[in-house]
UniProtKB/TrEMBL annotation:
Gene3D superfamilies: Transposase IS200-like (3.30.70.1290). Pfam families: Y1_Tnp. InterPro entries: Transposase_17, Transposase_17_sf. GO terms for molecular function: DNA binding; transposase activity. This is Transposase. One of its GO terms (biological process) is DNA transposition. It comes from the Bacteria.
Amino acid sequence: MGRDLRVEHPGTVYHVIQRGNNREFIFDKYDDKAFLLDKIRFYKQRVGFTLFGYVIMGNHYHLIIQMHHSPLQKVMQMLNNCYSKYYNSVRKRTGHVFGGRYKAIPVQEDRYMLTLLRYVHQNPIRANICKHPWEYYWSSDNAYRRSINDLVDVDIMLNFLSPNRRKAVEKYVQFMSLEESDDFESLDLIGDESYALAVKPKREVLQRKRLDEILIETGLTLEEFNLVKSGSRKRSLTSCKETYAKEALKNGYTLKEIAGNISLTDVAIHKLLQKERHSVSTDNFAD
């Protein structure tokens, strides 16, 4: 029986993970990683896609990628087939190089783009290869630190952090230095099969501010931002949550979307807004 077709939509951002067959180290040499990176560049120029980040490890690689016209499946098939031929030729072997189909997890509403980028860049740290992301050559971390908009399209994420490029890079460096909470380790539980089920973005939705952008504009520090995103119930963060929820509603988001972005339930957001309205109503009669 053939495999189910993946459902893909242009404009969707995907976190792609591809592992070696039986998790074997298929990128254990400098030339292996260099070959794969060169082919990523080649197909980016040939097909056209936005690359937000990447890391090439010894037995797998990660891409944060957004397709525009060609389907992701086509690009991944060309990339993996090209590398498989190279690998088998150099090693004088035959057989599978990659372990099944790649995982492709749609990034909904750009909620976790920064956290996902940090997760990708901190892979070498979790593998005890280095102590800092910038020490690992085979990732896009240094492209962000140096503001190099070439293979990786760093402008989008850096502009999200700040319109001032120097401040944006400083914020990026600060965010990358935070300890990884390993929220995305659960991706390994999805299995080898993955299906992109993202709904095709509507024109009006694309023009909305991102939820994380609305959250940052409340004046949170990066530490507070991460606390709110993790669902912290500190009272000192309540005011910012209220402001965030009201602005998100104005931008057309549902209570479920607003709540999910900060690890709460839609009921909790509803109560938060009701409490704020009650407070305003009480203040109007205080005189």
